């Protein structure tokens, strides 16, 4: 008989049902004649309580092998639970131990710090918090695809290896090849290297946007959802060297249409996650950040604030709050400024538009004032910038000038410029940092704890 997932059992199991479940032991409490075992297979927060009585065949032998961390299969009968907070439990008839675990198993029942758990990348997903994070992450990812599918967007796959720097910020990892079967091109340390991508320069992509623009010029509305890479040496709680980004791109769309989509999108994802992960979200509210549920409610039910960059600077200059980084028109808003606006002033997400051209990427559409561009950032309480986007420059001559001004080689962007030569159209899009979204939803303080295997300047191991 195929095993039942524990979440399904807890939802629909009825007293008297025969059941088989599989999972890992979280806790074991042995008394003289019976033993309580909590088993979890990752499908839910609570796991299920198993009760084994001493008249079960092989009781002593099996119970002696069971410890926190062991993998087990239990056949038994569903019974009503006398314990508080759980509707049912399973009375064991047969227990099979697949793999034991001894006292050296590092996740014994006590609260561990997230920092400590990061040294256990191979085991930490078996804890309550990380389990809840990765279920929420999964539900959010599913909701992303649903949202765009319902609106007729095509999901396009953009390359990870690229030749161009989308953001023009020069923060790319380069790609080298290592082929041990070919005659060596030896570097000092004896390692054989080829210096590049078959004789050409190649990088890990910082954004799928430019390729998404190509696809939007054929399919109207598209989106990407994939890993992106930044070689900035930022050791903060909001930066990863490898993160996942969702990038919609829409032809025949302007900045306000873009902002509308971003707002609808965030509302949709929050609602979908609340529906799919009720217990996990309640857990975050109780254990991680007691504003998580109120924040979700706020996102779903209130309109986001919308202000221009110039208005944002005026608001920042007006407040008595002291900032480390001084405010004046022209600065790139720092995380302290972003958080003040979203967290203290508006107490909800704020969409800031029309930033100075000088601090934004070359592809953003120049406004009539010649000073600002049709950019938008969505700032979230606690997290700061969660979305960055813009209306794109669709006018060939202006785009060429912007590329030159940014000091970028026009040649490298010939195909991007071609899109402005053949059937150009106003278009817009944005990028949502998926890990920042998961942080925002769960209240998790460190971005390293919302991706299974964080890549940061201090970690590549797991
Ligand atoms: O603002 P960014 O750099 O925008 C772009 O890459 C555009 N090409 C997107 C587009 O218009 N299609 O990055 C977008 C978002 C940020 O708002 C942030 O949420 C996230 O990506 N992000 C990071 N997340 C984690 N670690 C990092 N190092 C990040 N850098 C950006
Ligand atoms: Mg940005």
TrEMBL record:
InterPro entries: Aa-tRNA-synt_II (IPR004364), aa-tRNA-synth_II (IPR006195), aa-tRNA-synth_II/BPL/LPL (IPR045864), Asn-tRNA-ligase (IPR004522), Asp/Asn-tRNA-synth_IIb (IPR002312), NA-bd_OB-fold (IPR012340), NA-bd_OB_tRNA (IPR004365). It catalyses: tRNA(Asn) + L-asparagine + ATP = L-asparaginyl-tRNA(Asn) + AMP + diphosphate + H(+). Keywords: Aminoacyl-tRNA synthetase, ATP-binding, Cytoplasm, Ligase, Nucleotide-binding, Protein biosynthesis. One of its GO terms (cellular component) is cytoplasm. Its EC number is 6.1.1.22. It comes from the Bacteria. It is found in: Cytoplasm. It is an enzyme of class 6 (ligase). The keyword Aminoacyl-tRNA synthetase applies. SUPFAM superfamilies: Class II aaRS and biotin synthetases, Nucleic acid-binding proteins. Pfam families: tRNA-synt_2, tRNA_anti-codon. The keyword Hydrolase does not apply. Residues 134-452 form the Aminoacyl-transfer RNA synthetases class-II family profile domain. CDD domains: AsxRS_core, EcAsnRS_like_N. Belongs to the class-II aminoacyl-tRNA synthetase family. HAMAP family: Asn_tRNA_synth (MF_00534). This is Asparagine--tRNA ligase. It comes from Leptolyngbya iicbica LK.
């Amino acid at each position: 008989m195929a095993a039942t997932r524990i979440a399904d059992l807890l939802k629909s199991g009825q007293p008297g049902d025969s059941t088989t479940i599989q999972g890992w032991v979280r806790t074991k409490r042995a008394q003289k004649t019976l033993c309580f075992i909590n088993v979890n297979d990752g499908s839910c927060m609570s796991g299920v309580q198993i009760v084994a009585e001493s008249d079960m065949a092989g009781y002593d032998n099996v119970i002696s092998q069971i410890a926190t961390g062991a993998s087990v299969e239990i056949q038994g009968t569903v019974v009503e639970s006398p314990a508080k907070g759980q509707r049912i439990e399973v009375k064991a008839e047969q227990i099979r131990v697949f793999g034991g675990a001894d006292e050296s198993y590092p996740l014994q029942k006590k609260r561990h710090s997230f920092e400590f758990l990061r040294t256990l990348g191979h085991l930490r997903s078996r804890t309550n918090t990380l389990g809840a994070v990765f279920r929420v992450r999964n539900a959010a990812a599913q909701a992303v695809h649903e949202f765009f599918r319902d609106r007729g967007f095509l999901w396009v796959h953009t390359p990870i290896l690229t030749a161009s720097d989308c953001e023009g910020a020069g923060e790319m990892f380069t790609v080298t090849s290592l082929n041990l079967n070919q005659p060596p091109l030896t570097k000092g340390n004896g390692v054989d290297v080829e210096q590049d991508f078959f004789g050409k320069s190649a990088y890990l992509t910082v954004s799928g946007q430019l390729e998404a623009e190509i696809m939007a010029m054929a399919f109207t509305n598209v989106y990407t959802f994939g890993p992106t890479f930044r070689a900035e040496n930022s050791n903060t709680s909001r930066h990863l060297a490898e993160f996942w980004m969702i990038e919609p791109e829409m032809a025949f769309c302007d900045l306000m249409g873009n902002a509308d989509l971003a707002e609808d999108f965030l509302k949709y994802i929050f609602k979908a996650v609340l529906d799919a992960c009720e217990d996990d979200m309640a857990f975050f509210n109780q254990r991680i950040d007691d504003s998580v549920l109120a924040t979700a409610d706020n996102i779903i039910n209130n309109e986001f604030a919308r202000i221009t960059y110039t208005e944002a600077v005026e608001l920042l200059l007006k407040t008595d709050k002291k900032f480390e980084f001084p405010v004046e028109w022209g600065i790139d808003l720092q995380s302290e400024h972003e958080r003040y606006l979203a967290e203290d002033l508006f107490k909800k997400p704020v969409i800031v538009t029309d930033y100075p051209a000088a601090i934004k990427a070359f592809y953003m559409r120049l406004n009539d004032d010649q000073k600002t561009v049709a950019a938008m950032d969505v700032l979230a309480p606690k997290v700061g910038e969660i979305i960055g986007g813009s209306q794109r420059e669709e006018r060939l001559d202006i785009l060429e000038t912007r590329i030159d001004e940014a000091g970028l080689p026009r040649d490298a962007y010939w195909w991007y410029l071609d899109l402005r030569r053949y059937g150009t159209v106003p278009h817009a899009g944005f990028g949502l940092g998926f890990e920042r979204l998961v942080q925002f939803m769960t209240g998790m303080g460190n971005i390293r704890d919302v991706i299974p295997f964080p890549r940061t300047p201090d970690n590549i191991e797991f």
